[in-house]
From TrEMBL:
Keywords: Signal. GO terms for molecular function: transmembrane transporter activity. Residues 1-23 form the signal peptide. Residues 30-313 form the ABC-type glycine betaine transport system substrate-binding domain. This is ABC transporter substrate-binding protein. It comes from the Bacteria. GO terms for cellular component: ATP-binding cassette (ABC) transporter complex. Pfam families: OpuAC.
Amino acid sequence: MKKVLYAVYLSSLLAILPTTSFAATTSCGKVTIADMNWNSATLFAHLDQFILNHGFGCKAELVPGDTMPTGTSMVERGEPDIAPEIWMNALKKTINQGIAEKRLRHAGRSLSDGGEEGFWVPKYMVDKYPELATIAGIKKHAKLFKHPEDRSLSAFYGCPAGWNCQTTGTNLFRALELKQAGFDLIDPGSGAGLAGAIAKAYERKQAWFGYYWAPTAILGKYEMVKVQLSDSIDKQHYIDCITQEECQSPKATMYPAADVFTITSESFASRSPQAFDYLTKRSLTNKQLNQILAWMEENQADGESVMLYFLEKYPEVWSQWVPKQNIQTIKSAVKNY
């Protein structure tokens, strides 16, 4: 009789308990997350693993990933379940095909304001010469940007050879007639070379003008101003001409923001709606991410360390992504990690 009464009591208790966490625990199960090989993506991957495990009762694990192989594998095999940071301009056709065939789903924007590209100058230069915030001002003061090898020329630092941005940067260099203004397009040799050129100029308070992108540690560490190249963004011309090596008549335009999404498998989204809902909300701005990546670089931190740093320092941000009843559970897990 005692066993019968206990069973009835237990059933009644379960019936009145909040169902959110229990449902999430029983429905989420095993989840695979692509840990891609750049810093912002590995931050998102470790964040998703921690929050899904401790906030939603998942059994999330990280698997190695990169843009093309991860996207292709998700469409063809449904694995991994989550790609935290997919730059759509590199994989748009494949991802859209997967969504149309109901194999994949868009979750949210990893970067709420999109991936950012542009031509930049240090803020201390704009403070002194406000007109340097525009391309007309840059050309007017071209002599400020001394070439490291030829003093008769001005220096514009472009994208390293072989990178996609080399094409867009070169076409915009032509469209803006920077050669006619006395500028030479310098190949920095590598991403490290380009970052090093900014750092060297900034630490010496020297003039610098060139291409860069965000989110990056460099733009988190050094305050730069994006130069106004045009009054508008001509996205279609950018796609049809600026991105093409054979672009015959490039026209000035600002860089359009790149769509950067979290993508999931349809099976994950269907079986784990609450966990999927978290991913629709999990997003950072370029400014936030630049600052976090700067900390990561300065402290030589790995994905796990920067994830803990973010959860400890930015609770007002991530608490907006999860149900209220899960916040304290995640905070306790961080404290005891």
